[in-house]
Amino acid sequence: MQAFDYYNPTRIVFGAGRLPEVAHLIPSGSRVLLASGGGSAERNGTLPAIRRALAGFHVTEFSGIEANPDADTLLRAASLCREQSLNFILAVGGGSVADGCKFIAAAACHDGDAWQLVSAQEPLARALPLGVVLTLPATGSESNDGAVISRRASGDKLDFSSPLLFPRFALLDPATTLSLPARQTANGVVDTFVHVLEQYLTYPAGAPVQDRFAEGLLLTLIETGPALLAKPDDLALRGTMMWCATLGLNRLIGVGVPHDWAAHMIGHAVTARLGIDHGRTLGALYPAVLAVQRGGKHDKLLQYGERVWGITGGSADERVGAAIAATGRFFAELGAPAHLADDGMQAADIAPVIAKLAEHGLTRLGERGDLDEARIRRVLEIAL
Ligand code: NZQ
Ligand code: ZN
């Protein structure tokens, strides 16, 4: 196991019916930016409940944060924070709203071009405190230090992170997720599954605790995902999914082990160009990454196949192939498309996607840095 620091200061408040408690989680006297997305939180009653709970606070609302949040939209919210001296940000929504609020929190305290915090990875000196009321379990953003920000004007989608961006709290009320359409529920399962694999399915690192935690999450997702699609009103399943998603990327299972993240980096570039849902890019790209990287991932693929899918028969090569195939079948069972072409990508999009990755220095991907431009092209060709 590699040396590591583990730090996660986010308070987790889990349970149905707990939205009113948000009033006790925000420091009294705060001037709050209440930020949300395109209307789902209004329609499912989450935002009205939060508004009632915040009756004792000064609240300024900002809605319309889009899926794959756009820096230009978020900069308008950051200006509001400055103009009105707002000093706490409450995100109500999915990963896009949570991520967007992290950028707002940083930009509101930054003199100069805030996009540089993302594009040039300028270190953050200060950020406003934020909390998250999560309505879509998927990204783990509610209790991690990262955010993925898009800028449509330049065709970019890039991540940035800072310990200052850990939310102060994540309010996880599974009832807020009952309104999710099947497609977003499935996106969340695929995204979480891939988060776990990006931190687990690399090469053996003498980290049995992390491995068993990861395998436990994967097995839980395999049980919960299809059950949830069959019974979307099941609050217990919704709760299990919510906790899985948080644990998948709160950095715990990723300590002391190598990470991959190739499918994520390629997926972000695909979404930046074509607007395809994050989860759906991964459903097609992750099995393709496994196909191209199966040599380097051989030992871990065998372990994953046996412990997660019960694959014990056949030669080592056959078992590796069976583990990759099982992963693809699971995503298909959830309704994720196996091919990016199903969501509108064309062969002509491959070169510009690779060019974007190259522009940002993202062409030595994977746990060994050996997924170069030629291999990225093969991944995209398989996923197409
Ligand atoms: O905009 P609204 O109206 O709220 O609708 C959203 C949106 O259309 C809807 N939705 C959310 N909660 C709902 C709901 N609809 C009905 N009922 C509810 N309870 O779902 C749609 C998608 O929402 P979004 O927030 O975009 O989805 P997700 O949570 O999957 O977030 C995706 C973003 O997170 C980034 C992705 O790249 C993408 O930009 N990621 C962030 C990470 C992080 N910060 O650690 C890691 C991830 O790997 C990921 O890259
Ligand atoms: Zn993801």
Automatic annotation (TrEMBL):
It holds the Pfam family ADH_Fe_C. Residues 185-358 form the Fe-containing alcohol dehydrogenase-like C-terminal domain. Residues 9-174 form the Alcohol dehydrogenase iron-type/glycerol dehydrogenase GldA domain. The keyword Oxidoreductase applies. One of its GO terms (cellular component) is cytosol. Its cofactor is Fe cation. The keyword Protease does not apply. PROSITE patterns: ADH_IRON_1 (PS00913), ADH_IRON_2 (PS00060). Keywords: Oxidoreductase. GO terms for molecular function: alcohol dehydrogenase (NADP+) activity; butanol dehydrogenase (NAD+) activity; metal ion binding; methylglyoxal reductase (NADPH) (acetol producing) activity. Belongs to the iron-containing alcohol dehydrogenase family. This is Iron-containing alcohol dehydrogenase. It comes from Crenobacter intestini.
